[in-house]
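Need the bound structure for zinc ion, inputs here:
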Amino acid sequence: MDNADYLDVALRLANADLADVAALRAALHDEPWWSSRATSEDVSALRQVATDLRSALAAAVAGDGDGVLAGVNALLAAHPPRPRLSGHSGTWHVHVAEASAPPATEVAAAAAWGLAQGVVRYGLERWGRCAAEGCGNYFLDGSTNRAKRFCSVKCANRMHVAAFRSRTRP
Ligand SMILES: [Zn+2]
Ligand SMILES: [Zn+2]
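Answer from helper R.:
Posting the output first, comments after.
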């Protein structure tokens, strides 16, 4: 994985519904190395990490630099990345935990590292929280005019349909 992937892990974990192992697997779908080994203990461990990620992201959305520093550094201290070279799938790549570590250990370290690198790369200008009713997902706004309001096309469509209905209601 590269830093963009780690940031994606941070956002997916922050926005995940961690009700059970299936929900965690869904959030980690692109990473079979983690999702295939995930257990309910990983889900319990990652709930707190997700809460801490959301606090740090809320600080970023608010432009609160001190809050971002405190939140991200607490995550890095609690879940330090431990880089290990690996060749298990026939391609050389780096993991951020020992191979014997449970998935939660590596997912938490990947998310902490990803969020830190995301702030390094994008500063505090591009973080947002979905404006769709009942969503509240965090996102990174990659648009040139920085006008993104929704986390996904799905949420944008849902809100546009709702707005249209309220305009055309007799
Ligand atoms: Zn691997
Ligand atoms: Zn949304």
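Comments: The first strand starts at residue 84 and ends at 86. The CA atoms of residues 59 and 65 lie 7 Å apart.
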